[in-house]
Amino acid sequence: xAINTQDSTCLPLQEKIVYNNKTARAIELVILAFLVSMLxxxxxxxxxxxxxxxxxxxxxxELWFTFIWxxxxxxxxxxxxxxxxxxxxxKRLNEFEFPTIDIFVTTADPILEPCxxxxxxxxxxxxxxxxxxxxxxxxxxxxxxxxxxxxLVETTKFAKLWVPFCKKYNIQVRAPFRYFTCKSSRLEDVxxxxxxxxxxxxxxxxxxxxxxxxASQRPFTFTCDHNSDFADFCDVNxxxxxxxxxxxxxxxxxxxxIYISREKNPQHxxxxxxxxxxxxxxxxxxxxxxxLMLNVDCDMYANNPQVxxxxxxxxxxxxxxxxxxxxxxxxxxxxxxxxxxxxNQLDNLYYVENGIAALQGPFYGGSNCFHRRKVIYGLxxxxxxxxxxxxxxxLHKVFGKSYEMRESAAQILSGSNAKxxxxxxxxxxxxxxxxxxxxxxxxxxxxxxxxxxx
Length: 454
Prior knowledge:
Elements: E1 14-18, H1 22-44, H2 52-76, E2 80-84, H3 86-92, E3 101-107, H4 115-126, E4 135-141, H5 146-168, H6 176-179, H7 192-216, E5 244-249, E6 256-261, H8 272-287, E7 292-297, H9 307-317, E8 326-328, H10 347-359, E9 369-372, H11 373-376, H12 392-399, H13 403-414, H14 430-436
Parallel strand pairs: 3-4, 3-7, 4-6
Antiparallel strand pairs: 1-2, 5-6, 7-9, 8-9
Helix pairs in contact: 1-2, 2-10, 4-5, 5-7, 8-13, 8-14, 12-13
């Protein structure tokens, strides 16, 4: 009898799962037969047609539909997905070996994108199962709204209670607005201690919710003296204002939390979310410079507390760096209609994405994506540049005039970037960060051309 000697050090951290979709293939072949028979009928019946132009237009449309359908079927023919094993990861690696990660959350309007939804997204990310000292969260506010800044400050205060509660009781849904509306949320632990802390946390969250709601329903008032945290928001115009960067939390047991509102000027195009992502990349490069970046839309909360550990299975599961430049998690929708009559849960799109993943890997969907910073900077995944061979003139042309930006880029390109905990105080880097958040900084550089996320 053979003895299985495999242990956690031999088993893969991630593997590709290929689906057996014989039924779907059979259905698609039947549809193909119908389409071909329809085209044959069109051609055979041509001599009996009195109106050739309508017949020709119908044939043209049917040919085009068949062609597009065949292309789609070719993409969907093989289905696969990636399965990860975070339990094996924790047995194989220590937490200090995990890379640092910069998290980007973008919002543009506190009315169209309610602050309480954005704050729940932030809370779910602050509470993930990952070393807090290896995370930095950046909130990009394209509305330059004091309401968003106020909400972020209050949310960070609440996070100091919420994060320990989630980790103590291993809460699985760490966005409070989902957790407290779940019928089974109080059944995860029946101890009296848990019930008491649950009620306390519910009251604290209700207090946070009411603060944000009250602030959003009336004109936001604040003092404009130089000692106020809101002084920078006095008389600002959302489309014409200087850059505002504030460090909300630093070395407090939580991930770093930084607020960013990039400079805007009517004479310079801001390029919407693409411009915001480029500013986030530059500011984070100056301040924390993590080798991995995660971008999340403001209405996308982390529905799995181990999502970062699953991501690390991808990072450490590949033998060669050249095997990946980015990877992303598919979106999931809550409280949707069961039969999805309007198709807004994108089920068919994910079916197509699984097919593309079997061909060459997924395409970038715009959110929930981990990027390698050096790839965003234009370097191939498996390449490194020796520090001595990087010329300052080249860095100036590509990354701009900021010395801090060029230095951080050189560290990333050479693979010798410093850890977050070994870098300067974030507060001491605000001036340099404001410089790279300017609306004209990317002029004459490769930002938005060769160096960009979008």
